[in-house]
Amino acid sequence: MSMAALQMSREWTGLQQFPSATQSKLLEVLGSFKEKDMSTLTVLVMGKGGVGKSSTVNSVIGEKAVAVSTFQSEGLRPTLVSRSRSGFTLNIIDTPGLIEGGYVNDQALELIKRFLLNKTIDVLLYVDRLDVYRVDDLDRQVVRAITDAFGKEIWKKAAVVLTHAQFSPPDVLSYDVFLSRRSDALLKVVRSGARLKKQDMQTSPIPVILAENSGRCNKNEDDEKILPDGTAWIPNLVKTITEIALNGSKSILVDRKLIEGPNPNERGKFLIPLIFAFQYLFIMRPMVRRIKTDVARESKPAWELRDSGLGSRRL
């Protein structure tokens, strides 16, 4: 970890704001990184605007580390929140919403890519809302934009986070059925937008995690914020992040090659020898053979050409 990054990080005092049961679970989970000799973890949070990205970052950190805005701001920039505890540093990068005016905001995406230059992404959290009844082409556009920016491999390091988990579905559907349908629909969009094969999804399944950032979130007897099934969601989210970070897939280094794409001058260079070989065998050799034949014919005297019948054919 660079000195600049160390100077930017602060002591993770927000950890002390959690109930003791949550603190214990978080410290236990974070201890997994020490066992693997990992001293830092970088989590990238992306998605559309107004889905709860910033609120989720604040919930995990345990303090209001980033401003929360329901509406996307034109001047909004990526924000790095860095917190350290006992030699371990957690970096969470909050990003602006990727949709503006019904389309992917290429300017916002470019800003995010430049902000991430020379950083390594260990985990991607793709955030959306649970209380949405359908997916559309905008969802696919966002997934495709993320894939085009960072490559298909980033989905091996990803989880889908559904906020507003304390949601009551329509009476005709149970909570579990609604959650299953919403998760399946969104994962299909991820697969389609990222151009992933079924085998990719089976080999590296993308987990779906629930989050409830509202102050009205239900709590258990230990004062922990819980999901409708009773799961303490903050430790569960951090646990899943840890599992993704340690799943054996390579983290994504955002270098200039990734940002700017392949050098157009390098594109297709491997085809040059094949093109030359094709030209030589099928164009140059036949052409040289015909030229030699013509030269040989022209070098013969007229009477020899006449006797051989070549002269009359020319006439």
Could you describe the 3D structure shown?
The protein has 315 residues and is an alpha/beta fold. It contains twelve helices and eleven strands. A seven-stranded mixed beta sheet has the order 1-3-4-2-8-9-10, sandwiched between helices. Strands 5-6 form a two-stranded antiparallel sheet. Strands 7-11 form a two-stranded antiparallel ribbon. Helix 2 runs parallel beside helix 8 and helix 5 packs across helix 6. The longest helix has 27 residues. It is elongated. The protein starts with a helix and ends with a helix. The N terminus is likely disordered.
Outline the low-pLDDT stretches: 1-7
Number of helical segments? 12
The major sheet is characterized as: 7 strands, mixed
Q: Bin the helical content.
A: 40-55%
Kindly report the spatial arrangement of strands forming the biggest sheet: 1-3-4-2-8-9-10
Report, as a whole number of angstroms, the end-to-end distance: 86 Å
Q: What's the number of extended β-strand segments?
A: 11
- Averaged pLDDT: 85
> SSE order in H/E notation?
HEHEHEEEEHEEHEHHEHEHHHH
Give the amount of beta strand, in percent. Answer: 15-25%
Choose one word for the global shape.
elongated
Supply Rg.
Answer: 30 Å
Secondary-structure class: alpha/beta
Tell me briefly what this model is:
The protein is an alpha/beta fold and 315 residues long.
